[in-house]
Design brief:
The complex is a heterodimer of chains A (908) and B (493). Chain A is an alpha+beta fold and 908 residues long. Chain A contains 30 helices and 21 strands. Helix content of chain A is 35%, strand content 12%. In chain A, the strands form 7 sheets. In chain A, strands 7, 8, 9, 10, 11, 14, 16 and 17 form an 8-stranded mixed β-sheet that branches. Chain A has a 3-stranded antiparallel β-sheet with strand order 15-19-18, with no helix packed on it. Helices cover 26% and strands 12% of the residues of chain B. In chain B, a hairpin with a 2-residue loop joins strand 1 and strand 2. The chains are: A alpha+beta (908), B alpha+beta (493). Chains A and B meet through helix 1, helix 24 and helix 25 of A and helix 1, strand 3 and strand 12 of B.
Chain lengths: 908, 493
């Protein structure tokens, strides 16, 4: 019994333990969802020691980390820095001010380091300038958050290291925001920021700490700060200290901390824009320049369905597609923006591409690549980044991954033509659903020093409580590197600011510090400014009062600026197009309705609001970027709102259903209606005369077989085809008036009918030639004009008095001289011309050059319309004249049955 | 003359037709799919029985006899179905010499465990009158309870042993008969496992008045259960994994019954259907409205602990409930690889799967399918290593005595098992395929739910893939199947 009891106890205990373990395990499993696997950590990156600038293990020296030494132990960091526009940011392409091709007399490069961006409104002062705004040190403090290190963060403009000591101004100074004076900057104390590999190649770099160090001017600590919180280095009272626990026995970083990876979307997001990858509802701050890409374009990289975001979007329930289809399909930024010598993605493009070779298998070994990975990343043809022009268009674009023709051919008429003229994004990014900056007005400032800004796509500024409508990008013609011009979507950001001339006559943007001095004194508006702007006299400047819209306000600011010693202050306005290439949608979310473009309100010509104010009445200028984007439209101010209306026709894009030449339609209609009126008058006179005249015995008639069966067939077939060509043509020409019909089907039908018409015309010609009937159409020269006059007299006079037809109609001679003349013109001029213009228009996608040689669609299409009007006029006249036979219906009957009653011919 | 005119007309009409064909032949996004509505049954106009049926009725069987006067074959037909027998046809299984049957009548689960011996409560949901023990006459047509499915659920209710509840107006119930609606089916099926949504996770009382986002068929299109579970002679399509060993596809409901062809607008998604069940993407979560039971620990039952419907009941033990649960995914070909049969010996050191869905990555007919997994601690004989169903609701059962040894002895006796008297609690699991609460494409899974670094819904390596098929490619059997046609055409060097 005891034994059994013991055994039972043991078993019970074991069971209990087991049970507890089981329950615990289940609880654990239930309570906490599986932790996400450590993502993308390279399984083959070896453990490595951290080295200082001398190449010593930091555990020994306790010195600062040098990535040049640490990463450089295996990777060629010098090569990487030389081949990285993320490091360079414009340093190596600095020019004297005004020579960058941007049209701005103050720009010194096309990159972040040297191009004046009125959104951040700080100016990197060029060498030799009178007034200092940003020195290199100041630039690093203000803009360093978007710099990855290296380039201008380590190298002076003359190519010498910043730490070499041989620096010219303004690199050794900094603007003191309090005194406005240039102070000396001690680079030896601040240190410099070497290229920060960790920022892009580790999973959770501490960017906030990095930025904080940069703002504090501790550039040398910025790289270290990236590691704070990782357990490798700890902040101490007097700086930082290495954590010995983070290193293994070989004094290398422990593998679990050496988390080196390919850059993820989150790495890119740190500087570029909003990337949202969790299942939490997406949230964003409207027009927040901390996420420049999202702020300037409204682009959001997220796989989340838009309706599941946390934004208060209009018509949100219907937005069931993802923000970005490529994000939804699991693509990473680096899948398209890859390293240019990455053997997986590398492609030789442009003129390096051999015409017979689709794929070149001779690639870099992966090891060679890893030693010297080109950090010039593939990219597209965007407008706003002019940096490293040689890397433009190196990226695979839509068409190098997608074969769009098979997916469009079955529903999109003129597929190739569409692809030639319209960038994929134009239809596949029809709407941005996040707000984007519209305008920044720096001609005035708020009391806190900020400009008056406008955000488009939101009624207010909070994306959760205010309604977000998003915006439709404007389409502008972008000329690609290969010379192809396409309509592509852009956001236009306008900015106004004051410029001045310095003592050397250089035009520069007024410095922020001067602007503040002009407007403010001790944090409040100057009385002179308040007086000029405070229109309602309440002593407070409301947002709508804070605008330069009259001479008094402009003069007041100008006076203040002049008082600061700024010469010739002027308001300058600019429009910067921001290219939109992300947030691609597919399927129904993309534009597939023909009338979205082929209509009066074509989205290809949809205007975009530029600003709700025009400071000083200054129309802004488009920023040139190597003529990449053509702004051929017009600006217009309506009720104080400035907008830009694109003009596709000026770009050589003729949009059926949208473009037309008004005078041609008017002239055509006038001729058509004029002839109708003439017919009406003629018919009325005929009727009156028939009534007035005594009925005399009808002349004897006899039936004559006038039209062969084939003649009648081709005639009616042609009549039918032409009528339907008119109808379908009308729908194509004015879809807004005939919305009942599907544009797409009308185009197809019009083409089919045209084929029938041409075939019928050719066969009829063949028949006429072979049967000799062609002679009927050829006017006989002798006495032709006399006969024509006789016939004309008949129509103008004789017909009203019951006179006989001057020329008897017979099987051999069906046409009178006037008819011969008309048909001669019709068949030799109008019809061939109409067929020719039609074929050329159809052929714009097959032989674009031929069509372009002959004036392209902007010439061909209006001509086609004009001839159509003339042909229509002929048709009504033709129908009317058929009633002038022996009886009003005799001719029509004849064309149906073949038999016509004609007056008995004497001796006939 | 008129002949010529006619000829002309014919030519013109032919031409027009040609043009029209040209247009119609290529509508946007043309596909060769069949309209799913073609397979949805039309609902016949119901016959109002209120003037046909004359009472009075003394008992349930009286009502049945009245029904049979007109629907003479109905009971006979019904008695061949599992709604009546609660038992499958005999099937050969690898681990038994004799053919076996499974069903609620004779097998166990890891919820209330067993109906045998507990007929008083369990048979409340049997469509018959008075199934109390083995003596129930399965051949007596009058024992069929027509009202269980056909009477308005608001008027008719069943109680102990499936007898009409006290105070039911049988005449009113009989006069309310109709084709079953969600109310009638839901009365039992929404409360499987002993309460709302306890068992299935995808079938609960929220489906009485479903919103569009709860179930696209029932919510957006107002489907009845019988629109998919189509019925012929009372044989209803649709088989539960737990109550069957061999499932004939002809008896099962499948999405493809109505949704045929490559109808996704996205070619990539159409390719997914080679390895992914419709349910996997279109049922991202289960237990959307009401929590479902995910764990039942019988071992703690019988104690005087604070009671809470969702946490602990003295008669049942401790539970875990959860809602908005991500399903568990595994390969499934629609059949059963293993079903625990009473008397099967278990390994008490390992969790015992009472049901193992058939299928693997190498099975071309298997697809990744979502399941609700229910785990339990349930009693077993520690000497014989067999699971023992306790008598619970039955007389002298655990729910009245709270005494395991006697309840298990009675339960073993009910089930015809040897019970050593020694017992413990073993870990068991049951997988319930998730197939209701279907979401429209707007709410279906997206690529990144499973693929890429941010996915994580599917454990690729556990499923047998070398890695995420987005980058590693499809499984071998699909590769082989799709490679075959290409192999027959000579390849140019």
């Amino acid at each position: 019994m005891r034994h059994s009891f013991h055994r039972r106890l043991l078993i019970s205990l074991a069971l209990l333990a087991l049970l507890g373990m089981g329950a615990w395990a289940v609880n654990q499993a239930l309570a906490s969802p599986k932790p996400a696997p450590a993502s993308q950590i390279s399984p083959i990156h070896p453990a490595f020691p951290l080295l200082d600038a001398e190449g010593q293990n930091v555990l020994d020296s306790g010195a600062a980390l040098s990535l040049g030494q640490t990463c450089g132990a295996c990777h060629d960091t010098a090569f990487i820095e030389q081949h990285s526009f993320h490091a360079d940011l414009g340093l190596s392409s600095l020019t004297p001010p005004g020579e960058t091709g941007s049209g701005m007399p103050w720009d010194t490069s096309t990159g972040l380091f040297g191009k004046f961006d009125p959104l951040s409104y700080r100016y990197l002062t060029p060498k030799g300038d009178q007034r200092l705004d940003l020195s290199t040190a100041g630039w690093l403090q203000v803009m360093g958050a978007r710099a990855s290190g290296g380039g201008p963060a380590t190298t002076a403009r003359n190519g010498q290291p910043l730490l070499s000591g041989a620096l010219s101004q303004p690199e050794a100074s900094i603007l003191d925001p309090v005194s406005g004076q240039a102070l000396t900057w001690d680079w030896a104390e601040s240190g410099v920021m070497e290229l920060n590999c960790l920022l892009c190649h580790t999973p959770e770099p501490n960017n906030a700490a990095r930025i904080q160090r940069l703002q504090a001017g501790q550039f040398g600590d910025a790289v270290m700060a990236t590691l704070l919180g990782s357990g490798i280095v700890e902040a101490t009272e007097d700086g930082w200290a290495w954590n010995a626990e983070a290193f293994d026995a070989n004094r290398a970083l422990k593998p679990e901390l050496a988390r080196i990876q390919d850059p993820t979307n989150q790495n890119c997001a740190q500087c570029h824009g909003l990337v949202h990858e969790s299942s939490e509802p997406l949230a964003l701050a409207a027009c927040d320049l901390e996420q420049p890409q999202t702020a300037t374009t409204g682009q959001v990289i997220s796989a989340q369905r838009i309706n599941q975001s946390g934004l208060n979007l209009s018509d949100k329930a219907s937005l069931t597609h993802a923000w970005d289809v490529h994000a939804e399909r699991g693509l990473q930024c680096t899948d398209c923006h890859y390293s240019l010598n990455n053997p997986i993605h590398y492609q030789s493009g442009g003129d390096q591409q051999l015409s017979h070779l689709l794929y070149d298998p001779r690639r870099l070994e992966i090891g060679e690549y890893l030693v010297r990975p080109d950090h010039t990343l593939a990219r597209g043809q965007s407008a706003q980044i002019g940096l490293a022009p040689e890397s433009k268009a190196t990226m695979r674009r839509c068409e190098s991954c997608h074969d769009a023709v098979p997916t469009h051919r079955d529903w999109l008429p003129y597929t190739e033509r569409h692809m030639q003229e319209v960038a994929c994004e134009s239809c596949h990014v029809p709407q941005l659903h996040a707000p984007a900056i519209q305008a920044a007005d720096w001609t005035v400032i708020h009391a806190d020093g900020t400009p008056v800004t406008d955000c488009r796509g939101i009624e207010g500024d909070d994306t959760v409580t205010d309604l977000v409508s998003g915006f439709q990008p404007v389409l502008m013609q972008r000329t690609n590197v290969d010379g192809q011009s396409l309509l592509a979507p852009y956001n236009l950001i306008s900015a106004w600011f004051w410029t001045y001339e310095d003592a050397n006559g250089n035009v520069r943007p007024v410095r922020q510090i001067d602007l503040q001095a002009a407007f403010l004194v001790e944090g409040a508006y100057r009385p002179e400014i308040l007086q000029a702007f405070d229109r309602n006299g309440d002593g407070v400047l409301a947002e709508e009062e804070l605008v330069i819209d009259d001479e008094a306000s402009e003069a007041a600011v100008r006076a203040q600026l002049a008082a600061l010693g700024l010469g010739n202050p002027q308001i300058y306005g600019q429009v910067q197009p921001y290219s939109i290439n992300h947030n691609v949608v597919r399927g129904k979310a993309a534009t597939s309705d023909c009338q979205a473009c082929h209509s009066e309100d074509s989205s290809l010509a949809a205007p975009m609001t530029l600003a709700s104010r025009v400071p000083g009445g200054v129309l802004p200028q488009f920023v040139h970027q190597g003529n990449n984007v053509a702004a051929s439209g017009q600006m217009a101010i309506e009720e104080g709102v400035l907008s830009y209306r694109p003009d596709p026709q000026a770009d050589g894009v003729y949009i059926f259903g949208h473009n037309r030449i008004h005078w041609i339609d008017w002239a055509g209609a006038l001729i058509f209606v004029g002839v109708l009126l003439l017919i009406g008058a003629h018919a009325t006179l005929r009727v009156i005369n028939v009534r007035r005249q005594p009925k005399h015995a009808a002349a004897a008639t006899e039936p004559v077989y006038m039209y062969d069966r084939y003649e009648r067939f081709w005639h009616w077939l042609q009549a039918f085809t032409i009528i339907f060509l008119f109808l379908t043509g009308l729908v194509i020409h004015r879809p807004d008036m005939f919305g009942l019909f599907a544009f797409r089907h009308m185009v197809t039908l019009h083409n089919l009918l045209a084929i029938v018409l041409v075939a019928n015309a050719l066969l009829a010609l063949f028949w006429h030639v072979t049967t000799g009937q062609i002679h009927q159409f050829i006017p006989r020269p002798r006495g032709f004009f006399d006969q024509a006059i006789v016939q004309a007299k008949y129509y103008l006079h004789g017909i009203f008095h019951g006179a006989e037809h001057p020329f008897a109609k017979s099987y051999r001679q069906k046409l009178n001289p006037l008819q011969q003349l008309t048909y001669f013109g019709l068949l030799n001029v109008l019809l061939p011309l109409q067929i020719l213009t039609g074929v050329l228009m159809w052929g714009v996608q097959q032989w674009p050059q031929t069509a372009a040689m002959l004036g392209g669609l902007p010439f061909l299409a209006p001509l086609h319309s004009l001839i159509a009007w003339l042909l229509a006029t002929f048709v009504v006249a033709h129908i009317y004249l058929t009633t002038t036979g022996d009886t009003p219906t005799a001719d029509i009957k004849a064309m149906v049955t073949g038999w016509e009653s004609v007056p008995v011919q004497e001796g006939g | 003359m008129s002949r010529n005119l006619l000829l002309l007309l014919i030519v013109l009409v032919a031409l027009l037709a040609l043009a029209a064909c040209g247009i119609v032949a290529a509508p946007p996004g043309a596909t060769t799919t069949t309209d799913p509505w073609a397979f949805v049954p039309k609902h016949p106009v119901p016959t109002d029985h209120s003037h046909i049926i004359q009472g009075p009725f003394e008992s349930g069987p009286d009502v049945t006899r009245a029904c049979l006067q007109c629907h003479a074959q109905a009971a006979e037909d019904f008695m061949h179905t599992t709604h009546w027998t609660w038992e499958s046809q005999p099937v050969e299984v690898a681990w038994r010499d004799e053919p076996v049957t499974v069903g609620k009548a004779n097998q166990i689960n890891n919820f209330c465990i067993s109906a045998q011996g507990n007929e008083r409560q369990c048979m409340t949901c049997h469509a018959g009158y008075g199934w109390a023990d083995d003596s129930f006459d399965f051949d007596e047509p009058a024992n069929v309870d027509c009202l269980a499915c056909h009477a308005d659920a608001a008027i008719y209710n069943k109680d102990d042993y499936g007898l009409p509840a006290e105070g039911i107006d049988l005449l009113a119930a009989a006069r309310s008969v109709r084709a079953p609606t969600r109310e009638e089916c839901g009365k039992c099926h929404f409360d499987g496992g002993g309460g709302n949504n306890v068992k299935h996770g995808d079938l609960d009382e929220s489906l009485y008045f479903p919103s569009e986002n709860l179930d696209v068929h029932m919510g957006r299109e107002n489907f009845l259960c019988t629109d998919c579970h189509q019925t012929e002679d009372h044989a209803i399509k649709g088989r539960l994994l737990a109550d069957n060993i061999h499932i004939d596809p002809a008896e099962q409901v499948a999405c493809e019954d109505c949704h045929q062809g490559a109808f996704h607008q996205d070619e990539r998604i159409n390719l997914h259907t080679q390895s992914i069940a419709c349910q996997t993407c279109h049922i991202p979560k289960l237990a959307l409205k009401n929590p479902t039971k995910i764990r039942w620990d019988w071992s703690t039952a019988g104690q005087d602990l604070p009671e809470d419907h969702y946490e602990y009941l003295k008669i049942k033990g401790a539970f875990l409930y959860d809602k908005n649960i991500q399903p568990t995914y595994q390969w499934f070909n629609g059949n059963v690889a293993y079903r625990y049969l009473l008397g099967d010996v278990i390994d008490p050191t390992q969790p015992t799967a009472l049901i193992v869905p058939a299928g693997s990555i190498d099975d071309p007919t298997a697809k990744i399918f979502p399941f609700k997994v229910h785990t339990a601690q349930q009693p077993y004989d520690t000497v014989n290593n067999i699971l023992i169903p306790p008598r619970t609701a039955g007389e002298g059962g655990f729910w009245t005595t709270f005494d395991w040894p006697s309840a298990l002895a009675l339960g073993a006796q009910d089930a015809g098992l040897d019970f050593s008297g020694q017992f413990g609690f073993a870990e068991t699991t049951m997988d319930y395929p998730t197939t209701h609460m279907v979401q429209a494409k707007e709410n279906a899974l997206q690529c990144t739910d499973c693929h890429g670094d941010t996915g994580g819904r599917l454990d690729w390596q556990a499923l047998g893939y070398p890695g995420d098929p987005m980058t590693w490619g499809v499984r071998e059997v699909v590769k082989r199947a799709t490679a075959q046609p290409a192999a027959s055409t000579p390849v140019q060097p």
